[in-house]
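Hey Z.,

So I finally got round to the coenzyme A thing we talked about over coffee. Here's the setup:
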Amino acid sequence: MNDVRKEIYIVGAGGFGKEVADTIVAMNREEERFLIAGYIDDDPALMGKTINGVTIVGNTEHLIRIGRRALENARPLPSAILSVSEPAIKRRLAERLEGSVIPENIIHPSAVLSPYAVLGKGIVIQASVYVAPNAEIGDHVHVNVLSSVGHDVRLGAFASVMVLSALSGYATLGRCGYIATGVTVLPGVHIGENTHVGAGTVVTKDIPADVVAYGAPCRVIREKNH
Ligand SMILES: CC(C)(COP(=O)(O)OP(=O)(O)OC[C@H]1O[C@@H](n2cnc3c(N)ncnc32)[C@H](O)[C@@H]1OP(=O)(O)O)[C@@H](O)C(=O)NCCC(=O)NCCS
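And the result:
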């Protein structure tokens, strides 16, 4: 019988990569969908190492070559998931890998997603996340464990939401926005592109683009260095 599982590469072998690998294993317990082909990482010191049974098989260039060979031989492109939580790095990786891989959606079976939520591609939704009706999750967005994305919330492409955060109805997080652990965003509040909201923050009013902001209530602390 043919193996119907898709080979998937996990791009980024850090802590978040390990969590993504676990999430794929949990998905496979429900339905055998993916065969983890290995980690991809640009740190030469990691090459050939194995983390929790998954080997770092090459760097980004290696994955691009696999994609190129697949195209030359009229085979399907390899599947991949970006597993880096810093949005700017995620965006750069996605741009480099565009056209060389198929971005898959990795969604833990314990996550509850409204059928009226709109999902982009290459997203990671971890364990016990709730995504409410009419929420929009952009391409390559990550939502970490135990977080809640309220109704009509919009998360821009490459945004990351860390553990135990809650975005209330109609709130928005701009492209490449980052919400650290334990953040509450009040209803309808807009957080600008590239902005980084620190841990434990309560965001009560709109926050501009390109800043670091934290505290309860949230204050802009400084401009963000890209
Ligand atoms: C935004 C962040 C990166 C810190 O930014 P920073 O400006 O570099 O902060 P520093 O560590 O230089 O600290 C500067 C000051 O702000 C305070 N501070 C830092 N982060 C704070 C926060 N989230 N809330 C309140 N105060 C904070 C520090 O205590 C320090 O105060 P002091 O000058 O009185 O000693 C940090 O708050 C944060 O959220 N990190 C992400 C953690 C996280 O959730 N990771 C995800 C893992 S899954």
